[in-house]
Write a structure and sequence with these properties.
The chain is α/β, with parallel strands linked by helices. The protein has one domain: P-loop containing nucleotide triphosphate hydrolases (Rossmann fold, 3-Layer(aba) Sandwich), CATH 3.40.50.300. It is built from 9 helices and 8 strands. The strands form 2 sheets. The protein has a 5-stranded parallel β-sheet, with helices on both faces. A 3-stranded antiparallel β-sheet has the order 3-4-5, covered by helices on one side. It starts with 5 loop residues before the first strand and ends in a 5-residue tail after the last helix. The mean pLDDT is 93. The structure holds 2'-deoxycytidine-5'-monophosphate. The site of 2'-deoxycytidine-5'-monophosphate has 14 residues, from helix 2, helix 4 and helix 8.
């Protein structure tokens, strides 16, 4: 493992990337960065300022202005990390349904992406990082030593989302959640810049029917496997 500086985990919404990524990072003593949280923070900032999600120019300016920082949990309320937007704790606010609805639109703006990618690369340059997202292995860190593409069927992902929300006391019908997941998959996979896809050298892990423990074991075994030369 001494040579593994960067681990990229990509995949669609709800595949378990954040859960698994955070656990892998904890196990290895690496930094964990969920890049989806960065796009969500920009989306929240846009909503709060009533910026039109189609106004690419204003969004680009906003993405460069706001200060997003992601670090270890500062409150013990089940969060895997704390997200600050201009110094204020927005860890849960970025998970709200209104952010879910607009975030894909915001994440497809090229200048928003380049602002985020710049920050992501700066963080990765220090090494020992697990970075999770949609384009980490393909665009952000094409030289990452380990690339995992974590996926699951849309039906399984909708089921997990329903459970996750129920655990927080929110009840939403599964068909509605499934429709949202399919809509986001469509937007994330078909956008012009950095669409969601597995890097050619990514190892694909399909997690349908796997528990978190099983998926973690599988990913750790791939990550810790000696590099083929
Ligand atoms: O993983 P998530 O659901 O929190 O991601 C939120 C949105 O951000 C999702 O629509 C995809 C987008 N995203 C992206 O385009 N690139 C990334 N590296 C991470 C997330």
């Amino acid at each position: 493992m001494a040579r593994v500086r960067t681990i990229a985990i990509d995949g669609p919404a709800g595949a378990g990337k954040s859960t698994i990524g955070a656990l892998v990072a904890e196990r290895l003593g690496y930094l964990f960065l969920d890049t989806g949280a960065m796009y969500r923070a920009v989306a929240l900032a846009a909503l709060r300022r009533a910026v039109d999600p189609d106004d690419a120019e204003t969004l680009a300016r906003l993405a460069r202005q706001v200060l997003i920082s992601i670090g270890p949990p500062t409150v013990r309320d089940g969060r895997a990390y704390t997200v600050l937007l201009d110094g204020a704790d927005v860890t849960w606010a970025i998970r709200a349904a209104d952010v879910d609805r607009v975030v894909s639109q915001i994440a497809r703006v090229p200048a928003v992406r380049s602002a985020m990618v710049e920050q992501q690369r700066a963080l990765a340059s220090r090494g020992r990082i697990v970075m999770v997202g949609r384009d980490i292995g393909t665009v952000v860190l094409p030289d990452a030593e380990r690339k995992i593409f974590l996926t699951a069927s849309a039906a399984e992902r909708a089921r997990r989302r329903e459970e996750e929300l129920a655990a927080r006391g929110e009840h939403r019908p599964r068909p509605e959640l499934l429709a949202e997941i399919l809509r986001r998959d469509e937007l994330d996979s078909h956008r012009v810049v950095a669409p969601l896809r597995a890097a050619d050298d990514a190892m694909i892990v399909e997690t349908d029917g796997m528990s978190v423990r099983e998926a973690l074991g599988r990913v750790l075994s791939l990550v810790q496997r000696p590099v083929a030369t």
